[in-house]
Design goal:
This protein is an all-alpha fold. It has ten helices and two strands; from the N terminus they run H-H-H-E-E-H-H-H-H-H-H-H. The two termini are 12 Å apart. This is GntR family transcriptional regulator.
């Protein structure tokens, strides 16, 4: 089930699947070569993450956050990720620093490509930071809020350069590595507010609708 969850999640965060898109179990099973039962369980997992809406006796759809939802998501995200930084400041190992810089290098390489790839990589950066705390409850909630934020950015945000976010991620790594914790936490809060401000979290996107074709690249892993 991991592969189908990862594939659909990536398609949503990268904006290949848009809010309101229908996600019938048979089409998902065909795309990923799994049974309808496995597809149904995957949709349940993604619904728990806030990426999919499940309604009784209806086909699942991609969740559709409003601009107000997006603002609430970022407010919660700031509070959670300040906690992440408080735990990590001054405690990152050289290997962890190298791993985070590798993710940023991937962001840099993807900066001229589709916005969705940059959003996904930035999301992975923040989730990996949370995972480095080793605190399961914090990781769970940060992961969910980051996925919700990624969906909001891919579906509501205006196109904008990722250069600023990349430079901010590098600065965050350096300050988290050396501390102090209060300054690193404030830098994280400022970074997330800047992301929201640059994106403006508004707008709409064009739609194309063949689910099997949309998911084909994501079913290959």
């Amino acid at each position: 089930m991991t592969a189908i969850c990862q594939g659909i999640r990536r398609a949503i965060i990268e904006g290949a699947l848009l809010p309101g898109d229908r996600l019938p179990e048979d089409a998902l099973g065909e795309s990923f070569g799994v049974s309808r039962t496995i597809a149904r369980h995957a949709l349940g997992q993604l619904a728990a993450e806030g990426l999919v809406d499940l309604r009784r006796n209806r086909i699942a759809t991609v969740a559709a956050p409003t601009p107000a939802d997006a603002r609430d998501i970022f407010d919660i995200r700031v509070a959670l990720e300040r906690q992440v930084v408080q735990h990590l400041a001054g405690n990152l190992t050289p290997d962890q620093v190298a791993e985070l810089k590798d993710i940023v290098a991937q962001e840099h390489a993807a900066r001229h490509g589709p916005d969705g790839a940059s959003i996904r990589l930035a999301t992975e950066f923040h989730i990996r930071l949370a995972q480095m705390t080793g605190k399961p409850i914090l990781v769970r909630y940060v992961t969910e809020i980051c996925y919700r934020a990624g969906l909001s950015l891919s579906s509501l945000a205006r196109p904008h350069s990722s250069e600023c976010a990349i430079s901010e991620h590098l600065a965050l790594i350096e300050l988290i590595a050396r501390g102090p914790a209060d300054k690193a936490a404030q830098m994280m809060a400022d970074h997330l507010e800047a992301v929201a401000a640059r994106a403006l979290l508004s707008g709409d996107r064009g739609r194309s609708r063949d689910l099997v074709n949309i998911l084909q690249p994501y079913a290959k892993g």
